[in-house]
Amino acid sequence: MTHFVARIVLIKEMENSTEVVSFVLSAYGDIGNLKYLYFSIMLLWYISICATNTILVVVIYVDRGLHEPMYLLLCHLFMNEISTSMSLYPLLLSQMFSDTHEVTLPWCFLQMFCIYTCSCVELCSLTAMAYDRYVCICYPLHYNVIMSNKRVGKIILLVWIYSFTSYMFSFSFVIPLTFCGNVIDKVFCDQQLVIKLACSVSALTSISDLFFAFISVVIPFCFISVSYVKILLVCLKGSKESKQKVLTTCTPQIVSLSNIFVGGIFYYVESRFDGAYAPDGVHIISSIYLQILQPMITPFMYGFYLPKIRQSCKRLLFNRK
Predict the structure, then answer these.
(1) 41-70 confidence digits (pLDDT tens)
(2) C-alpha 309: how far from chain center
(3) Cα–Cα distance between 21 and 116 in angstroms, integer?
């Protein structure tokens, strides 16, 4: 009898789940006339992200002196920052003027796919750049042979194939889910919360989610850590000038990785406690911390911090020879 009742309840849940054709992003709430101020700030920030990253992409493309492996990898990273921002800000801005804050399932799934794929590409790109610095510092005489421009193109292609296939494996378990709820307490479509809205979740779905986290976060961080440990060991034996040069080229990566680590902590804590112990503003900012700061930190730390790119920017913008 108990099994029969449970089956009836499950059937009713399945019937209700067919009615879920959109999700409600409840974190927006009712902000009244402040939406115009928030919209202006976020639009200006979005334009700034696109403008600064685009300028650096153009600088690297125009200046043939920057057609080197490290700068080509940087160019790819700048383009990925634009892609990451495009996966979040257009929907974020449009939802500020919505009364219902609804997003259809296809658009929600598309945003999830873009955000998580680009996030994986970000870490894999930083891994490739750490490897580039490792070869340059530890094997300087063989650098031009190991890291040619053609090989960099293959590495970038491999980064996208790795990121696409790793997330598609996890995403393939989310697509067939049926949902019994439609309220997401965030300003974007978060896979963790979407899975929680499913009527039932198989063990494979949970495992695939953990598997994606492992191959997209843990493995890149391990490779990056090993690269920098070896670089540090070489620096300890080098001269003061070589140490200064290594510090100049490696500082941007260390800052980026530190910011990603902080953002990861914010995301974990916010997801773990569902924002219950934090004000709404803190809850929203912590959930999109990385999408707000990382796309702007990258161009300033890599682009305007490195002397060679800074000089090229001055020549391009101010027409100096």
Answers:
(1) 999 999 999 999 999 999 999 988 889 999
(2) 24
(3) 22
**Quick check: 94 and 129 in contact, CB under 8 A?**
no
Q: Which pLDDT value is given to residue 281?
A: 67
The string of pLDDT tens digits covering residues 210-228 is 888 899 888 999 999 898 8
Pairing state between β 22-25 and 102-104? antiparallel
CA distances from 108 to 181, 211, 231, 277, 307 (A): 14, 22, 42, 27, 41
Q: Environment class of residue 213 by beta-carbon count within 10 Å: exposed (0-12), middle (13-18) or buried (19+)?
A: exposed
CB distance 267 to 234 below 8 Å = no
pLDDT for 82 equals: 95
| Strand runs labelled E in the chain | 22-25, 102-104, 183-184
Adjacency order of strands within the sheet including 102-104: 102-104, 22-25, 183-184
Residue owning tokens 């009712």: 30
The whole-model pTM stands at 0.85
- Category of 275 on φ-ψ map: left (φ > 0), alpha (ψ -120 to 50) or beta: left
Question: Token digits for 182?
Answer: 């439609």
* Cα–Cα distance for residue pair 248/246, rounded to 1 Å: 5
Which residues in the chain land under pLDDT 50?
1-17
Could you tell me if 116 and 191 are in contact, meaning their C-beta atoms sit under 8 angstroms apart? yes
Residue with tokens 């809205």: 197
Give the CA distances from residue 313 to residues 174, 215, 225, in Å, rounded to whole numbers and listed in that order.
Answer: 44, 36, 31
User: What dihedral do alpha carbons 209, 211, 212, 217 form, nearest 10°?
Assistant: 120
**Which residue has tokens 């696409």?**
164
Distance CA 185, CA 192 (A): 11
- The single-letter DSSP state of residue 181 is -
> And the tokens for 167?
């997330």
